[in-house]
Amino acid sequence: MEEDSKLDPDTQECLHFISAFLAMEPTHSLISFARECGKGLITNQVQDFIWQYCINKTMNEDNRPSDLYMKNFLKKVIVEVESSCIEVMDELYEQFSYYMTSVKDGFERGNSRVYKRISFLFPNVSSCSRVEKIVIPLQCSVNMLEGDTGYCVDKVVCRPLHLCSVWPSSLFLSEFILSHPDIFSNKSCFEVGSGVGLVGISLAYVKASKIILTDGDLSTLANMKHNLELNQLKMQTKMSQIKCKHLPWESASEEELQGFKPDIVLGADVIYDPLCLPDLLRVLTNLLSRKISNGCTKDKLYDADDDALLLKTIPNDCNPLESVDHDNKFGSQPDAAKERQPVAYFATVIRNMETFDCFMKLANEAHLSVLDITESCKPLNLLPYMRSYDRTSIRFLRMNFS
């Protein structure tokens, strides 16, 4: 094959193809991308590209897609090529034969882990055909044999069964962080239910000053720490201060929670179990309510004419993308009065409307203002190759004391 007939891995079609493969997208999506690269067919050039960049290049990497996933992908490729009466490359046949003899058709449920590389692709204004990217490798639990990054929940209580999978709201929240780094840069950020750690790694890229990642499941926490270590060498910017903490909502104390003092609280798909909502709301109110020197909390109002503190809330018509700054300038005031009021950003898929209504009721009783900013705060589409990721199912909420 002549050199000039090879596909360019930096073109949009090829980059989307590689990114989908590394993220372990469903194999039918990969076949669709392969056809796009070959103008409708998986040509000899496309097969060579698959061999060079999907098989040969990743074969000796520790964080490559699973062998079972690669076996299923190659099987689909071979069937597609043969059905088009095109000759299949010998290398693809040989690699598939190797997987047929060495890879079993199943995983040991609950113990298996796979590696996915999530590529966030940023449009480059200087050239429409080129993009810049951030690639984040993650160790995840096996969710679907096709490698989908969807979620798996218990149908009775909507409790996640695979705590180390990449949930869609986590992808959305990470897109939002990377789309608007000015909101999170130099801020202290706290995430409840951090899962694989994707949101925390995204916060590190935008240089959040402090990042506290929490989860109530010890195995999830151990996997999260592994992912943070896995990504330290991938960081292109100076690492922020990151801490991982075991924090079951039901046992977290008021003193412990108020000691974190975050500027921004984040959560992805944590509104799923009505039994957990009272504890979640208690955690939120303690994180968003800061104590000041006279013993009162910052969510209360005082009269400035009496030399007391005037602490404002977020107006409903405020631009949700602006950093929330409630500094008051009435001459000399205590430093505590000049603190920014904490704000929370939650991304969630509403799978059960009764559960969501319960959350809204408890939030109202806790004097938390919940604003749906889904339409006004859409992040950039940084995952255009991830066709299994349904953004339309996600609601984006901003919360603070009313």
From TrEMBL:
Family: Belongs to the class I-like SAM-binding methyltransferase superfamily. EEF2KMT family.
Glycoprotein in keyword set: no
UniProt keyword annotations, A-Z: Transferase
PANTHER family: HEPATOCELLULAR CARCINOMA-ASSOCIATED ANTIGEN, PROTEIN-LYSINE N-METHYLTRANSFERASE EEF2KMT
FAM86 N-terminal domain residues: 18-96
Taxonomic superkingdom: Eukaryota
Protein name, as recorded: FAM86 N-terminal domain-containing protein
Gene3D superfamilies registered for this protein in UniProt: Vaccinia Virus protein VP39
Molecular function per GO: transferase activity
Stored Pfam families: FAM86, Methyltransf_16
